[in-house]
Amino acid sequence: MNRTMRWAAMVLLSGLTATPGFGAAVLQCVPYARTVSGVEIRGDALNWWDQAEGQYKRGHSPRKGAVLAFRAYGPMTLGHVAVVSRVLDDRRVLIRHANWSAPGAIEEDVLAIDVSEEGDWSQVRVWHSPTGQMGARTNPTYGFIYPAKAKLHDFVPDPALGTSVRFAKLDKAMWDERPALATPVSPRGLMMVQARPAKAARTAVPRLETDMRVIAYADNRPIRRSLSAIIADVRREAVLN
User: Fold this and answer.
1) How many beta carbons lie within 10 A of that of residue 53, not counting itself?
2) 80 - beta bridge partners?
3) To pair with 169 at 20 to 30 A between CA atoms, which of 69, 94, 131, 155?
């Protein structure tokens, strides 16, 4: 293994000791979404939709500052909440959320797409920062909770809310004027917006600012990976770059 490979492998392996432990308290999606959106709802994320009744307007159209409430599904036993930071078109939004791709990780202005048959945002897919692509899982949602005033608030890390790390941020301008290309995503013929631009525009692909301490996660669920698998990934990256 050459010097570059050894260095990359050491960086990846050192992340194993720097990644927040699963037993430690980490930042959850609820306090993050409450701070960023200003929506004053407490309790588990799966209860936000019902709690919003009578307090906030709800609907199925994305708006800046709205909270997208996810249903409990798969490993998300308590649901999930994310805040819309920009509406790109009817099927694409950028969101800000925490504790999704890795424990306590904060992801800002990452892509979420509507893959529902009716276009009502009842089924979505979300950007997965560790792999730099859309997550493989389709996630069911309740819809959007609209704050009284659509304003995004800054989030300042607070140890009282648990440990956190700024995992990734996309350049919002990179998604402007992006054509809504459709590709089939299931045998039933559901359509989704293509997450990456065509090859002709490859240079405009958003660049992630990724914290290398967080390495092997997929859709909220940690993965055990061997040293040989990590080294194989490093070699592939070296060939591609």
Assistant:
1) 10
2) 70
3) 69
Stated pTM of the model: 0.67
Q: Are 145 and 30 in contact (CB under 8 A)?
A: no
Q: List residues bridging with 92 in a β-sheet.
A: 89, 113
Q: Report the alpha-carbon distance of residue 105 to residue 99 in Å, rounded.
A: 5
The pLDDT tens digits of the residues spanning 110-121 come to 999 999 999 999
Residue with tokens 């019902």: 50
Look at residue 8 and give its three-state secondary structure. helix
CA distances from 79 to 82, 139, 236 (A): 11, 10, 35
Q: Can you give the residue ranges of every domain in the chain? A: 3-240
Q: Is the distance from CB of 9 to CB of 230 less than 8 angstroms?
A: yes
Please state the CATH superfamily assignment of the domain spanning residues 3-240 in this structure. Answer: endopeptidase domain like (from Nostoc punctiforme) (3.90.1720.10)
- 15-44 pLDDT, tens per residue? 332 344 444 599 999 999 999 999 999 999
